[in-house]
Fold this protein.
Amino acid sequence: MNRGKYIIVTNNPMVMEKHGSTRNVIYKNLSYEGVLREVRDRIHEGHSMLTHPLSGSVKPNETPYKSIMLSEERRGIDERSVMLIENAIHACGKFEFKSDRYKPEVYKDFQLIDCTLIESGMASADALY
């Protein structure tokens, strides 16, 4: 088991299924923006963001899934993380995800894209820790 020095906040069931037993994954049934707000709350509790909230070139209106890595340790409020998450929430507010424009099987593709992005962050963090 490799719990690392980070937590992953996600609304992506694939991330939970693949990594929930070996990593500290917090799965919440939230919207994309809901995940950003959950991360913001944790930043205000003292966690720092380890992955960018708008990573990849996937816009909030193009996918319903988001996974973000945070430091496990609380070190006080990280101003850079606050700024990044607030900007991401603001940007997310400009978009609206339209779930009715996709066939159900496309959601697995969205999950895979998000899972691949967070796995890249996990590989980097695992190499550091």
